[in-house]
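Late entry, written up from scratch paper. The run itself happened at the end of the previous shift, but nothing got recorded in the book at the time, so transcribing now.
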Amino acid sequence: ENVLGYLEGTDKSDELIVVTAHYDHIGKKTDGTGDLINNGADDDGSGTVAVLELASLFAKAKSEGNGPRRSMLFMTVTGEEMGLLGSEYYSENPVFPLSSTVVDLNIDMIGRWDPEHKGKPDYVYVIGSDKLSQELHQLSERVNRTYTQLDFDYTYNDVNHPSNLYKRSDHWNFAKNDIPIIFYFDDIHEDYHRPNDEVDKIDFDLLMKKTKMIFYTTWELANKND
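Output as recorded:
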């Protein structure tokens, strides 16, 4: 089951910002010895807790009289590992009209480093921000420059990249319906889809910085004038 948390906006409540992460993983290995449980701390525990934190922050803002202008949908989806099934189901049976959905920000693995960035500035792979909206891309860049100064790596933004990541997480079911998206990602590291993807390998400082960046981006999108 997908899990949806809705927060109604103020004067632009008929427009919707969606923030997604998948909470399923691949289960238990069927062979071998030792630890056989794939807990998925990074894939996608990191994204799931980021969505929960963002929902908490927006709810707190609304309770203090500073709620977002646009409505918010914080959605953790199921079945991503089986073929993006949860987000596909939502796109085919939307609770809120896709025609009023402004953007999907999808968070799938943001708690680790990859070898390419070890010893370098804090980073995140940003995928898809310019594919359907140059305005979204420019807002994303401006917010990061202003607040968080992460290194935005666009390596996987190339639709011809052999990994084809633009179509491999839940944002794709929004993008294929012409809804602008951003996919935040930290790379397919050595513990990807293995029992070693454990919580003690999460870099919580980096996870916090990425979540802050996504918060600022989401806040700007939810409150901009047009």
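The CA atoms of residues 43 and 109 lie 5 Å apart.
(Scratch paper discarded after transcription.)
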